[in-house]
Structure formats: C-alpha cells, structure tokens
Amino acid sequence: MDRPQYTDKQLQDALNSFYGGPDNASNCKHIFGYNNPNHELSMLQKITATTILDYDTKLSSTSTTAVPSIEELLQTAKEFHNTNGSILQLQHIIQGKSPSMALAAEFKRASPSKGDIAPNLNAGDQATTYYEAGACVISVLTEERWFKGSLDDLQNARLKTTTAANDKTNESILRPAILRKDFITSTYQIAEAAAYGADTILLIVATTPSNILKELINYARSIGMEPLVEVHALIELDVAIECGAKVIGVNNRNLHTFQLDLGTTDKIASELSKRGLTFHHDNNCSKEGEEKPQLSLCALSGMSSSHDVNRYRAVGVGMCLIGESLMRSSDPSLAIQGLCLNPKDYEASQSTAGGAYTGGTKIIKVCGITNSEDALVACRSGANLIGVIFAEKSKRKVSIEQATEIVNAVRKFGERSARVTIDTVKENSSSAVSTLVAKSHALERASIRPLVVGVFQNSPLDVVKDTVEKCGLDLLQLHGSEGMAAANSTNFGGVPALRVVDIELGNDGSSSSDKSDVAANIIKQVTSDPIAILLDTSIKGDKHGGGGTGKTFDWTIAESIQSMGLPVIIAGGLAPTNIGEAVGNVRPWGVDVAGGVEASPGVKDHNKVEMFVGGAKKAAAEASKGF
C-alpha cells in the first residue's frame, strides 16, 4: 500500500502540535531536543510524527476510506471481549508469576535498526508457540512502516492464543495478555487496540508530554486496561511516576540513538529503591493476603539468555520482554525453556560443582572475516564471535585498518559504541576446570551481542596488546606456541584470550594417540589463564602450528574432555555439510568455522554462512531436547 511521505518540516510541525506549543512547556521538559531550534529529529521522533500524521490523514473528513469512530471502536471492543473473554490486568499477570520471571514474548517482523527479522511468520501461530512455552504476555508490534506489523497481527495473536488456552484442561492456566506495542499518541489508538483484542498498550514517555501521558493512562484504565509505561532515563521515570504509572518498562535501548545498555534497568531499579517505592518481584508477589508491591518493573530490549533474566531477577524485575532472539530462533519453545524463568532452573543450569558438561552448543564463531559486509552477514545469521586473523602465514590476514572497520560494523550492529567488558571470575586455585566453566558462562553472557576476536600466532605479547588496543578488539585468540600463561588477560590490559590446543594428525589424517590419553593430557595442561579452550587440527611436522588445515580431528576427543567437565570450542574442517553432525552428536560448547564457508580465501559465501549458523542452531535445539 502506498503511504504518503512527509517532509522534515511536516514531521516537526506534527510534533510541535502534539507538544502543545509554548504554553505546555512545563509538560515537555523530558523530551529530547524540545525547544531547540537546531534539533534534528531522532528516528523515534520521526516514527512518532509519522504515526501522528498517518492517523490525521486516516481520520480526516477528506479520507476516501471509511473508518470507525471512537464510539464504534468501543462498542466493537465490548462485543469482542464479551465473546472472547474479558480484559486481563497486566500487573496482576506479572505479579502472579512470582517468583518466576514473567515473560513478554514479542512478535516483531522487522525493525528500523535490524531490517527484516521474520517478515513472513504467522502472528497467531508464533504467539501460540510462545504461550504454550510459558510466555504470559504476548507483545505484538502493530506499526506498519518500519516494523511491518498490523492490527490484524494483534487480533490473530489474541484469537489463536485464546483458543489454545480454552483447549487446556487446567482451568487455572490463563490465556496470555496481549500487548499492542506501537507509537500511541491518542485515545483513538487505545480504543482501536481494545477493538482488536488487546489487554494492554505501550505508552512511551520519551515522546509524550506529561499531561497527555496522564490522559492516556487514565483513558486506558477507563476501558479496563493497565498500560505498560516505557522509560529510558531518570527524568522519564519522574514523569511516569507523577502520571500514576503502575507497570514501568525500562527500555535498555535508547530509541533516539539505538545504543543498547543493559545497565539501564539496573539504574532505574536502584532509583526506585532510593525513593522507597516497592516493586521487588519476590515470593510474596503472588501470595494471597500479602501486601502487593506498588509497582511492577519490566526490562525491555536487548535480552536473549538466562543470564539476562537472572541479572534482572536479582534487582527485582518482574517481567522481561524478549523479541528478536525468539523471532530468529529455529525453536522458540526451546529458546524460552533456555531462559530459565524459574530461579531454581537457573541455579541448576549454572552448577560448576564437577560433572560432565551437558549444556550443548552456545557459541558460534565465524573466523577469517576480512570485510565489514561479511561480518554483518555473520552477525545477522546469529554468530556470537567474529574472528579476524593477524597471523602472518594466513591467507586471511587483515590489516589494522580492515580490523577496525570490522569492529566498528559489529559494534553498530550490536548497538554499542565501545568494547564489551567480560566479567570473568577470579582464578580458583583449587580447580582450573571449574574456573574455566565459570569463565565460559561469562563469555556466553557477553557474546549475546556479537564480539570481535583477534587471532594471533606467536606474535610478541606487547605487539598483540598494541593491536588489541588500536582495533578495539573484544577478546583475542592465541594460536601458536605461546603457552597457557600467555593467555592471561593481564597481558592485554584486561582483555581476555581464548587458548587454542592443537589436536595433531599424521600426514595421512589419522591420529596414532589414544583418544582418552589425548583428552586426559589436555585436561592436565589447562590452566585458569584463558577465558576458554578451543580445539583445532594440526598436522604433524608443521612447524608453523595448527589452524587452517581444513581437516577435522576425532570429535570423540572433545566429547571426552567435556565429559571431564571442561566445555570446549571445536574447529577444523567444519562446514554447512557436517555442522549438524558435529553439534548434534558431540554437543560441543562452541563451534568455529573459516574456510568451510568461503567463496575464496578471505571472502565469505553468504549463503554458506547462513546455512552454517542456521544449521548449528537447529542441531543444538534438537540435541537439547534429549536433556
């Protein structure tokens, strides 16, 4: 459908009208760029202004399309909810999940920062999958231009999840609440949401004058909805509280700049505590007769793992909203299971008290990247680590300039502007393996957004450190004869290092060593210096060391090592054709590919990259079903 395109002046005029002019200045102090004649509209403001103008056009007397009045929408809403069940109260839904984290699973076809995510999925089917896996709220993006959503998606999600809930024999299991996520600036949009089956709506403080925000909150409550009120900064929190918000969502993404900071929710939680406001999602939240917290705090944007969920559980958050990672997942049900919404499940998953590693594949590394385009394909496919090679012998060696360009591209994709700090544990002198297990969990947490790894081989450590700093690498990989101690992060200004251990093959590709002996010897030689261990193939007699052989080693060696408790990344000879076998049978903690996804040395075949990463994720999901 052709939609009108608006000039910058039309957009600015629309916002100025929405803001209410000079007489309403006291209600607009929190709005980014307000009253600054030189201010350029952010993407958030452009989308908001476009929405205002689209609705002005839709509701104008000159519109060629008949649209229902707000009174007609409210009558439709009444009939819909009489037929399909009454509106659910968002805060009650969240508090009722305590002490488990409530999950708002999001249906999002696309976004301004990431482009298409899953444009062809059926909203009702995906919402039902989310619900049956444990989501108690379904968030549906209905904005059409940038997010490719619709009100039909909202209604489809509502109807199909209602049917699914009605089919359950356990009547205590409610259907999920349906959230309309959009850029809402009018009571008309709220009535529209109710008419299409929504239980709640999102209100964004960052673009809404406080007098209008209060009007929208009160209007939503007048028709039975408790809105989710989104903030990003402390000044926005002030506005939300003053306007009477009860469910406050903290967007970790700054929608003006698209920078992501998972610490934003922590800061808001700390501020609420300082003000003496109750919000903590503890065991008392769901108990009958207990005094309920005044507020419910929700974390929005940037989360995808059990580590994120646990991080926010610790500061009292009651609900996490997760979208992109679930939309991209080959098995959303398993992805939700992996979030460990129940704290007991998380505790069990993080045990480092000995025993075999059975966690499955968590890390996917695409190495030998030489340009930013290939890096972004790997990022969009779902790779955790992007490898750039500085080893002199490599056909994929990059310059400082190439690596810096790749780092900048990966940072932009990950909505960050600086190196990621990996919170590793201190050395546990009693057990190198248990320390490395804990470090592997830290790397999992950090690589939710892709990291750039610099690969070095027998370079002086001061040269490595200098390169790491110049390029802004997130971590490095030592691939020569440097030894375990060289991989200590103190050698590189706190930047951690992967340590490669070679699995030597004869010239005929066979190994003469006993597999169990090889595994036992590796366990003996590891120290707690590196952040993790990577196994790669080397050829006997090659004085340059391993890597780049294109040959696989006996993967049962990796199985043996993991059975002794040490998670490992495997490399060497991996490709789209064998990644399913490797991940499905061996269940390594990580996989690493370079030549197996190339069109020519240093140039990636984008289709092969997507097949490799997608194949690894699919195989990991299938393999995890048995555990």
Please outline the helices and strands.
Elements: H1 8-19, H2 43-59, H3 70-84, H4 90-95, E1 102-107, E2 110-111, E3 115-116, H5 123-133, E4 137-141, H6 151-166, E5 177-181, H7 187-195, E6 200-204, H8 210-222, E7 228-231, H9 234-242, E8 247-251, E9 253-254, E10 259-260, H10 263-274, E11 296-300, H11 306-314, E12 319-322, H12 324-328, H13 332-337, H14 343-349, E13 363-366, H15 372-381, E14 385-389, H16 400-413, H17 432-446, E15 451-456, H18 461-471, E16 475-478, E17 497-505, H19 515-525, E18 532-539, H20 556-563, E19 568-570, H21 579-586, E20 590-593, E21 598-600, E22 603-604, H22 606-624
Parallel strand pairs: 1-4, 1-12, 4-5, 5-6, 6-7, 7-8, 8-11, 11-12, 13-14, 13-20, 14-15, 15-16, 16-17, 17-18, 18-19, 19-20
Antiparallel strand pairs: 2-3, 9-10, 21-22
Cα Rg = 26 Å
Shape descriptor: globular
The proportion of residues in beta strands is 15-25%
Helix content: 25-40%
Quaternary state of the chains: single chain
Instruction: Determine the N-to-C terminus distance.
Output: 47 Å
Structural class: alpha/beta
- Most strands sheet: 8 strands, parallel, barrel
What is the total tally of β strands? 22
Order the strands across the largest sheet as they lie in space. Answer: 1-4-5-6-7-8-11-12
Mean pLDDT: 90
User: Number of helix segments?
Assistant: 22
Low-confidence stretches: none
What features would you describe in this structure?
It is a single chain. Helix 8 (210-222) links the parallel strand 6 and strand 7. The protein has an 8-stranded parallel β-barrel with strand order 1-4-5-6-7-8-11-12, surrounded by 6 helices. The radius of gyration is 26 Å and the shape is globular. It is an alpha/beta fold and 627 residues long. The mean pLDDT is 90. 39% of the residues lie in helices and 15% in strands.
